[in-house]
Design brief:
The chain is mostly helical and 139 residues long. The protein has six helices and no strands.
Length: 139
């Protein structure tokens, strides 16, 4: 209600593009979603998006690699155990892990910077900020 039928218009336009009036050669359409249960069945008919591939969440080794990527340039404390984080984050995807790393960094910054601290003091001592395992677990 009140959405001006945007969803229906988008699906209608996609169907028009997929079916088209002219035959397309050597064109492959690839779509991705994290909500396959919400895809309109008209899009899944043969000749449209008729092949479905399930890509499972990353395994533990892949999650560890993703944690390494997203924590690479962050000031980690010596107690941070990326292997333990990878083990604890079953069913997390890359975006989830990125969000955890970002939130852990923000928690460390919020813990360090207090309302009574001047901006100059915060900048001067920013190098002392360390992200600890406690921050990751809270995130």
């Amino acid at each position: 209600m009140g959405d001006s039928h945007v969803t229906e218009r988008v699906i209608s336009q996609m169907l028009t593009e997929l079916d088209g009036l002219e035959e397309l050669h050597d064109v492959v359409v690839i779509a991705a979603t994290n909500r396959p249960d919400m895809v309109d069945t008209a899009l899944l008919r043969p000749g449209r998006l008729d092949r479905l591939l399930y890509i499972p969440p990353p395994d533990e080794a892949s999650r560890l690699a993703i944690f390494k990527i997203h924590s690479k340039d962050k000031p980690l404390a010596s107690d941070v155990n990326l292997e333990a984080l990878a083990k604890e984050s079953k069913d997390y995807v890359g975006a989830d892990i990125e969000a955890v790393c970002r939130e852990a960094a923000m928690l460390a910054i919020r813990e360090y910077i207090t309302p009574d601290m001047s901006p100059e003091d915060a900048r001067k001592n920013a190098g002392a900020i360390k992200i600890t395992m406690k921050h990751f677990q809270a995130a």
